[in-house]
């Protein structure tokens, strides 16, 4: 087990200025498995940011051992970990792999072999030069506004400070959630941050199931909420940030809304489960290529 605990409980809240609030089956990160009702009530109030609370009655409390999901109540893993760690968030690009079903796979070959290079250099000196032929949407890649809009900034014109060393935030989605709407994003302060949507769909990468119509996606309302709240970048570990199901047709509202606002998108992330809820720095910078709107990135996080 991972040694992290959460409490599941019902709660009745009474406010000093009248009125109340009830919660059923609420789950909250807790620092250990021995928490009493008083401390749990205080964490609950802090987590929700409730003001003028006179009383909280905890009922049906149950302690479960499962990974923390993040919030104000308990410090994130980054606050408890000494030292600096780099966390890989990119898929490995290999010859013949599938990123998007039906789209061309990369082909990795040799342009200059070690044996062929020897005639150009002194004895004992040799080099290898590989060649890769691929479409821009391969592996984990970045979308700039030029991907969607003809007059949008491309890879060469997009600001580096919107792609590198950004404060990061993970939004973890419950199992079975397909549409990421604004209410799922409402608890998070996303202003100026790289918002990484952790759906777990990366487990299907390079399989037939990865392109299934049930793949999680960001809704148009969710995209608008991220724009309005000032997100700096949005990433997802699913096949597309938009709905690719048959009912969606050719609409791509999340791409359209985010890229129109100058917010870059990173698709096909992986390994988001290794990140703390917040307190890390995120980078996903591509080469500076003129005339291209998308390109693979080495996405990673730095946790101090």
Q: What does this molecule look like?
A:
The structure is a single chain. Helices cover 14% and strands 29% of the residues. By secondary structure, the chain is α/β, with parallel strands linked by helices. The protein has a 9-stranded mixed β-sheet. Helix 5 (220-229) runs parallel beside helix 6. It starts with a strand and ends with a strand. Mean pLDDT is 92; it is low at 77-81.
Q: Strand-and-helix sequence, N→C?
A: EEHEHEEHEEEEHEEHEHEEEE
Unreliable parts: 77-81
Coarse shape? elongated
Helix content: 10-25%
Report the structural category.
alpha/beta
Mean of pLDDT? 92
How much beta, percentage-wise? 25-35%
Task: Figure out the total of helices.
Answer: 6
Q: Radius of gyration in whole Å, from Cα? A: 23 Å
- Give the N-to-C terminal Cα separation: 24 Å
Annotation keywords:
nine-stranded mixed beta sheet, three-stranded antiparallel beta sheet, alpha/beta, 304 residues, 16 strands
List the helices and strands and how they pair.
Blueprint: E1 5-15, E2 20-30, H1 37-48, E3 53-65, H2 77-80, E4 85-88, E5 107-112, H3 114-117, E6 129-133, E7 141-143, E8 166-172, E9 179-180, H4 182-185, E10 194-198, E11 217-218, H5 220-229, E12 233-236, H6 253-260, E13 265-267, E14 278-283, E15 294-296, E16 300-303
Helix pairs in contact: 5-6
